[in-house]
Amino acid sequence: MKPLRRQSLAKAIQLSLLISLPGLAAAQDAAPAPSATTLDTVTVTGTRIKQTNAVTAQPVFVLDRQKLEKTGVQTVGEVLQQLTAGGKALNAKFNSSGNFGYPPDGGGIGAGSAQVDLRNLGSQRVLVLVDGIRWVNESSASGVSGSADVNTIPLAIVERIEVLEDGASAIYGSDAIAGVVNIITRRKLDGAEVHAYFGQWGDGGDTTEASMTLGGAGERWSAVFGASYFEQKAISSGSWKQSSEPVPGGGLAAGSSGIPQGRFTFCDPSRPVTGVGGCDAAGDNWYDITLNNGTTVPVFDPNNPNGGTYHGFSGADRFNFAPFNLLLTPSKRKALFTSLNYDLTENTRLHVKALYNNRTSTNQAAPEPIFVGPFAGTGGIADTVIVHANNPYNPFGITLDPATNFGWVTKRPIEVGPRIFEQDVDTTYFNIGLDGVFDIGERGFGWDANYVHSENKAEQTFRNGYNVAKIKLALGDPAVCAAVPGCVPLDLFGGQARPMTQAMIDWIRTKQIDSSKQVLDLFSANITGDLFNIGDRAAGFAAGVEHRRYRGEFNPDPLRQTGESQDSFAAPVNASYDVSEIYTEFNFPVLSTLDITAAIRYSDYSTFGGATTGKAGFRWQPIEDLVIRGTYSQGFRAPNLGELYGLTQFGASLVDPCGPTGGGGPAPQYVAGCNAQGVPPGFEQANTQITTFTGGNPNLEPEESDSYTFGVVYSPGWADATSWSSKLDFEVNYYHHEIEGAIQARDLQALLNACLASGGTTPSVCSPFSRAASGNLNPPNNFLSNLGSVKTDGVDIKVNWASPDWSWGRLTAGMQSTFVNDYKAVDIDGNVSQRKVGVEVNDSAIPEWQTNLQLGWNKGDFDASWNVRYIASVDEDCGNSVYAGPKPGCLNPQNVNTLGSVTYHDVQFGWKNAFTLEGLKLSAGANNVFGKDPPVCVTCSLNGYDAGTYDLPGTFWYVSADYRF
């Protein structure tokens, strides 16, 4: 295929880029060497203007194909989550479908997906592009998300990944607050390439990947076709001691009160109020009992709660749900990709890209517990259940009525089996467009026009859940139950020795199917070129228009919508909006050593109206070896469909200071507030997951941000072509982001603490909270609003060095290090978030330092690499743990657990043209070769460690083969 004819300046620009940027040069897979007359277009993330300089005004980190292969991982998500500038984001190590309900942002659980976070500002504030065009957001079958699932893009089709470490709303529009990830796909290949990969963790989790890529070119065309398959198997939480308990070191006392033997809290109105089992208002005399192990025929003694076959419930009776969970969620992905370029004329080219990706994945949780009665605190049908005296399995001989004498019955029927959540997700992408060049006089211009249609469609099947309306019927009057076909009285009273019958299970068990879909249609047109000369250099510009239409659907199972599901309530979403945008960008070489850049973008949204963002920057090169640069940018993020229209329940993990699980009573600063709220003496929180009604707000306004960067790039000439160095580069960049009107729900834990500390009745902080007579919290409401401000700043340091070719080989070294100076989030109530630098909270950490170091050696057909990844220590407040008892690391006056610094070592060895077969490369390696375990986290929700910050425990080894012919 002949490259398009270019104007002379454009040719010089692109030649300069290819020579000076190894990452860009590597992108031209099998491309012909650049000639003096023709060259294909090169785009650099962060600007649409062609650049004559290798170092632009904004910081961009490039991961070329060689660097991607050296990581030893096989997914885009894993690669991006190793960036030092990254933060917590969903990945395959999160297994939360059945544990927490739906998060407040309306985006759903994201089960099985992988997202990317930059600067710890959240994945919803990172824009993901593929070949410079916006990627569709994911739909996890549990909501309408504002984040992209980067694992919908197979690593096999990726040529390089460019990460813009700067705000860029003026260039790309909404979401580009923390930065931009631009995934560049393979455009050229001459021949065929086959790839096979197998890896395994010490405790299993086999990973298999295979791909085939075909490519060719003719006089006027070039094409690439790829197919890939990926499979990752599960690892059980029970395989590792740290994840085999609900809270590391907590034992059964940190477990759930939903137990196989059942827990029964009630009183008998016929007994004296002041005696055992009496219905006193404080609940001090109520029965709170559980069945003795091994009991087949329950015997209840109303005069003695510890008599008969029962005993008083205690922490020793709780259930250890942890071994049923997963450390690594299993998944399979199948993908097809094609790219075609065809020269319509000498100056106009047709381009077409298409992708199909299917992902199936599974999450698992312990058998679903049944909670009925007002103490369940669901805010729904379960709170209204009556256990009739005539139920043939009711051993207490009285009716348990929420209006008079019923606290709750809890029962975990392990005979039903674990909760299983199966996701089936399809992603389709189609792009067709034209690009070309033309001249006006002596000046050359490039242009492109694109149409994109992309969809992400998901279905989740939930097995071994319950219909709570049928539970209510089966526990009620047997005569009413008998009149309903299929209904049989339900036995929640027999314990493990008398499991529920199959007929009972069949009556209450139900399969639930949720689905969601996101659709993005996009039209864009861009033009770029030279305006006029300033001295001997040209002023460049780019301008363009874009129109996008977003459509989102979430269709929860009908039982969720009616509240009949024992699992979380959710309401459907079916909504859309569109946006039209226009932008322009300029680069002015005002001096021979100084460039000034500027950009402005106007966006018109159908939901909230218009927004204008701007950006300015400079690049100063006072001497040949030194570049000083900086940018200032305004940003915004439009509320996504889930944030606007979602309505769900969220199982917030709340520590009630008035009586945390494990006992101990309230701390001194909370005593007055607990008394004011009527919390009885000796109260202990019944359930650490407090049902919260949450969701979107159609009146949300966009988030707004101000960002600036300042950096220095030094490439000393004294280190070029010497006896010890062929190239040496240093780069230091300072970043600062400030977001106003951050879209979020209120921090319920901080709000509850502030409420109780202020006396328990202050309306500004106490309005979401109320309590039942037992002292347990009722379900609060917590909807999204433009509540917060977030500020963060820090420094990125990068060093790259390459040796000359010595007789024994060539060495390379690279380092990327991020120092986070400050992170502060404040909500509208003035509460400062616990999330800050050096702190682990809410399953995420912001280490002060993260550093990646790459050392490489190659000689002829052999190469080796040693990568080091360092994460600084962080502290967690042990008071945030859902378990108040003794925990490892917390036995100090500060009640703080330090998660020590972690260093991972990854090694890889490669052999090209192996066994004298040209084109065959064999590789073998191991990540975390010394088997470093993640530090113990006592406040993390699952598996006893922070899955967004640290690797899985143990070593991951792998082998791969690549054959190109």
Short description:
The protein is mainly beta. It contains 13 helices and 41 strands.
The helical percent reads: under 10%
The major beta sheet can be summarized as: 22 strands, antiparallel, barrel
* Tally of individual helices: 13
Our measurement of the CA-to-CA distance between the termini, rounded to an integer number of angstroms, reads 20 Å
- Proportion of residues in extended strands: 35-45%
- Give the structural class: mainly beta
Average pLDDT over all residues = 90
Cα shape: elongated
What value does the Rg take, in angstroms? 30 Å
DSSP E strands, number: 41
Which regions are unreliable across 5 or more consecutive residues at pLDDT < 50?
Answer: 5-41
Structure description:
It is a single chain. With about 950 residues, the protein is mainly β. Helices cover about 10% and strands about 45% of the residues. It contains 13 helices and 41 strands. The strands form seven sheets. The protein has a 22-stranded antiparallel beta barrel. It is elongated.
